[in-house]
Design brief:
With 561 residues, the chain is α/β, with parallel strands linked by helices. It has 17 helices and twelve strands. This is VWFA domain-containing protein.
Amino acid sequence: MYTALKNLLISDFREKEENFSIKLTNNKKIRLNLSLDIPTAMYNHYTSEITINPATEGIYQAKRTFNEALKISNIKHMEYTETKALKLVSRGLNIHECMHSIYTNPYIKEANNLGEKEKEILNIIHNMVEDIFIEKNAVKKYEGLLPFIIFNSVFYERFWKDNDKPTLLEELFNYINRKNRFNYCNTLPKPRKEVDKVYKKIKKVLKKAIRNKNANKRNNYTYKIYELLKGNLKKEEFSVGNNKLHSCSNLSEENFETKDLDGENEDFGWEAYKFIKDVDRDRESEIDINHDDIELNIIRYNEQSINNKEKYSILLKEIRKKYKRIYEQFKNVMVDYDYEIENKKIIGQMIDSRNLVDHKKRYWKSQYEITNIVDFSVMILIDGSGSMDSYSKDIIGILLCLHDILYKYNIKHSIVSHNAIFYENDVNINIYWDYNSNNKESSNILEYEPNNSTRDGIVLRWANKYILEKQNSRNPLLFIISDGLPSHVKENGKVYSVPYIIDDIKDSILDMKKNGIKTYPLAFNTSYEDLEKLYGKSYRCDNPNMLINNLFSVIYKKLIK
């Protein structure tokens, strides 16, 4: 029954998975242990140790659930074997615990004042909140890893074992987990009236807890949930049983022979078992940052549609009204800019030294001729992945405002989005406005429609070449707008994702700097710290207003410099 597991417990898988953990968390202290003595997996914040049970509940042996999980998690080109099931389960657990190491703060100060039983309940609530947060929010920044999380969630949902006689509190926790984590199969059972009543009392605080990006604030909400539950439950209801979910009682030491293991491993007990040589060889998640087989599709929107023209006129009026303050502020900056340039020419540049030979060109330009003196260009390179879809209306409005102002003051600019097609070797470059477009093409900005994923390395290399070829200003600016870290899967299943792509993107940015292109990454509704690991100094933009203000703030600095 356990042949596959026994055969796969070999020497170099633990090292490979541990190396994966170190790269993902960027923490060299991370250590990975394998054990069949724990229910699923755990992370020790004090020792930086991840411990996972690859044979959790024996779920790797469930072929039908495996295939269903593959389908729901969109992992393709893979057929069931116990070996592959073990690999996917192990990687999912490892990723989950890595997210805990990055985002979870295990210390809740109020716990010091609680008894052991109360502290146990608080810890359960805390772990539940953190589990939901990392699987529903944090992991979104690593889109290439999300399928593994979904895969495991589907498995656990199918094999979830409630206690025979659960307390009301246990029923509540089971319901919350099913509703917020294991909800990919649409099999959420309706809670008992008593459970639903308690759930509604903590619902608002729970939502705040699982959505808050600050670990300390999540801990504060966790304790509020604890207090609400304690205040609304009877003493006998405010308890949990001794049974644990996903117990491994069906997997005991008797099921395995240890005498065949290498002598050096025998001393470590179950932690000595290491599995799956060449873990990435036959799996979907094999990393590939090479762009040689990627096809760039340059899509130019040179002709505007009649529908877009009409929509554009209506929307532009709304945008000018909505961002009236920005229009006025830019106008004032441009007045000051002209004044500063004029003064500089009067005081220090009465004669241009480049024209001393030709007496006809010795004189400085008069004020009315200073209309084309802005010596920088702007390119907007915007994330066109599916995660931007819910903000597409706001993004289009910001792009229209920016374009309308830059066009009015004759500042050369280009507006481009990019996206990579999942499971295809295609990357689309969508040019809505070229440096040399005419005003009739302005409505093409409305064509912005986010979908699929992104593959930034090759796009940045294209942008470098495009900027150098299409404009001739001495100070080209590139604004990189993104709501998360790039991720893409080729048609052969190989993944382009962090942390392996860091050097690829950093090299692209470095090439731009060598060519005099200044880059300004804007982290839209995401962690700017994460973006800085790839692009360098980034601007935090938690909402559309912060995004448009940061965009113009940089441009203002260039004008009044």
